[in-house]
What does this fold into?
Amino acid sequence: MAKKKWQDLSDRQKALIAGGAALDAGLRLYAGRDLATRERDEVRGPKWLWGVGLAVVNSVGVLPAIYLLLGRRSKPGGYDVTPG
It folds into this structure.
């Protein structure tokens, strides 16, 4: 199967790709800012590894979502909705 060029995609396909890219970028930015403002003991796992993963791994929003749901500990005095 030959690769489709952008102009060969339907308007719906283009919208889905653009929407997915925007969602991924927004989640990465939010997760990256959250990670930057947390202390080491407020992050599950190595903070630097989360940072590299969020910056490099193209996960279509999956890695930022995993960090936001499972990679954070509560801030002192904060509300923690994550398990563990």
Observations:
- The chain has a mean pLDDT of 88.
- The first helix runs from residue 11 to 37.
- The helical segments are 11-37, 47-56, 62-70.
